[in-house]
Amino acid sequence: MILGTGIDLIDIRRIVDTLERHGQRFKDRVFTAEEQAWCEKRADKAAAYARHYAVKEACSKALGTGMSKGVAWRQMYLSRAAGRRPRLVCVGNAEERLKLLTPAGYRALLYVSISDEPPYATATVSISAIPEDFTMPEQALP
Ligand SMILES: CC(C)(COP(=O)(O)OP(=O)(O)OC[C@H]1O[C@@H](n2cnc3c(N)ncnc32)[C@H](O)[C@@H]1OP(=O)(O)O)[C@@H](O)C(=O)NCCC(=O)NCCS
């Protein structure tokens, strides 16, 4: 079953501006060390940060909280393992909210999709729940 969906569209130029004005302070407030390391390696760093930013906003909408109720940027992040698609992870209050949404006997799966076409970046997040004892094919897991 679907527990939530969220979408965000961001103008990459806004991120360029924020990076110029606030630099590392902005990066540390919004992005995990792993996300920063990834973005810093991209040719277009601002676009990479914008895609991650869009994921966080989309996730906060899928959770139904926005950036409120203690849910904050670094609690929703993209984790990357070699050769795998990026995985969205919720920790802290975002994870607690996810638990609150998930019916007993189910586990939540977070699906993320990301794109950009400068000057815009966009992301969608869907939260799905499957019975705890349901076995998913490895390839179908987010
Ligand atoms: C929802 C949120 C995550 C994003 O809002 P936003 O970027 O200002 O606005 P967007 O255009 O992307 O989204 C607005 C839509 O989100 C939806 N929305 C608002 N609150 C929501 C919530 N709690 N859950 C799910 N969807 C929500 C609404 O449909 C809204 O449109 P509407 O006002 O026409 O109904 C907002 O709660 C937020 O906290 N933004 C943080 C912005 C911020 O702190 N910026 C600082 C820069 S470092």
Explain this structure.
By secondary structure, the chain is α+β, with helices and mostly antiparallel strands. The protein has one domain (2-133): Ribosomal Protein L22, Chain A (Alpha-Beta Complex), CATH 3.90.470. The protein is built from four helices and five strands. The protein has helices at residues 12-30, 33-40, 45-62, 92-101; strands at 2-11, 76-79, 87-90, 106-117, 120-131. The protein has a three-stranded antiparallel beta sheet. The protein has a two-stranded antiparallel ribbon with strand order 2-3. Strand 4 and strand 5 (120-131) form a beta hairpin. The radius of gyration is 15 Å and the shape is globular. Bound molecules: coenzyme A. Residues 8, 57, 60-61, 64-67 line the site of coenzyme A (COA).
